[in-house]
Amino acid sequence: MAIVVNMPRLSDTMEEGTVAKWLKSVGDKIEEGDILAEIETDKATMEFESFNEGTLLYIGIQEGDTAPVDSLLAIIGDEGEDISALVSGGSSTVSVEETSEDSPVVEDEETQGGGEIPEGVEIIKMPRLSDTMEEGTVATWLKKVGDDVEEGDILAEIETDKATMEFESFYNGKLLYVGIQEGESSPVDAVLAVIGPEGTDVDAVLSSGSGGSKKSAATETKKEAPKSADSSDNKEVSKPVADGARIFASPLAKKIAADKGVDLANVSGSGDNGRITKKDIENYTPSKTAAPVAASNVKADNAIAFQPVSMALPSGEEGTEEVKNSNMRKAIAKALGNSKFNAPHFYLTIEVDMDNAKASRAQINSLPDTKVSFNDMVLKACAMALRKHPQVNTSWSADATKYHKHIHMGVAVAVDEGLVVPVVKHADLLGLTQIGSAVKDLAGKARNKKIAPSEMEGSTFTVSNLGMFGILEFTSIINQPNSAILSVGAIVEKPVVKNGEIVVGNTMKLTLACDHRTVDGAVGAQFLQTLRYFVENPVTMLA
Questions:
Q1: Set 34, 108, 345, 516: catalytic member
Q2: How far apart are CA 418 and CA 147, in angstroms?
Q3: What is the pTM of this model?
Q4: Annotated domain spans of the chain
């Protein structure tokens, strides 16, 4: 039977989407989990995967075209199947099975246990929110058992291996059951929640809908119900607090607050459960409070009365706090561990004269609307050096070494939960200002968790720069499947010898970590010599 795939709602505010790129063509075989297309929403460009198998029979929205949510996006079915009725009827012919294609929410009409789910009851499962997501962690529940839920309400914030994303409801009803508590992780497709009419036998739904649940719905309801029934509890969470408790705010509100320097703890939220929205930040006006003067420190003549200092030795308590590893941190640990222990690393370090680079950068930045950093210059120099030393622009596999004809530069960016590597593609074909603009844009998206998975894939070489933190020299772990990574230290002003005389000069240390399976010592050394030439002679990078 042919399956109609509609334009999904991929964000809480999305009303229409644009097909940025089709990754499958009509006639292609589709497997469950294959990426069908890249869809641009009002917040980001996201990969949209198939939840069905078959042949791609029809594409309803072409690349570059925009269409409302629920518009006919594609049809998947058996090769040669007649789909004329579905194409002419559009989305009006979508069956219950087809509706599951609209979103990551999975609805089982026919149960594994052989029973049927009552009408109006929806079993919501852990969605796959990224192409590499295998499990998710519920960071925050924004609804409680017993709360009314409307289509479009944000149910929870779910942490994937790449970002924390809002997960909205596509159904109306009451939240009857929560299967995964805050802070808990579960695989994709595990039962996340049940929504339906009040009074539904949730135990029966779970046992018929998913072959039995590991938790009793009655027990879960008993735990949650007092919180939702107690109106005083609801009032307590209606305003964020500044005592370390979690503050509920949408990602957009957090970004605007960070840009304006607004402390979210001082903002009252108008959304569900005191959630801070964009409007709350825009309407926020800081209150002016005078700092109180401690009466015990003031005498009648305004002289400060100092208290005697105790000479007793301080005593403290030992303590340890366990912070659960985020999915992003787990993914970083796994990738770096595999690289360090599987790829034989060796390191080469050179010191580069930066006098010409500093002078050239000052001249370039004196031009109107131009801003180039030293990191941009290093990225451009690396791209040009890779063109002359293709052995470094490779990837190792068990059967062959892949020589990449394109040069995609990975740029390590620190975020709150770890490290991500956005990719500047075809860096050797870009000018210094173009590289600078690309890096600034990608780094901003990464720090605001708005970067698309496709913008972090495909690197052939990586640069990690800690010079801005005053680090003189360090070594990095190779970002596989790259064969090398460059570590960039700080520019230091120090005495150097030039023309037999000691003068003040500016130097910077560069360390290349190489995978010895693909890059030999002599190859790495020759690459660094070429890199030094470009960095020390920036005019060669302007051609």
A1: 516
A2: 35
A3: 0.50
A4: 3-102, 122-229, 327-541
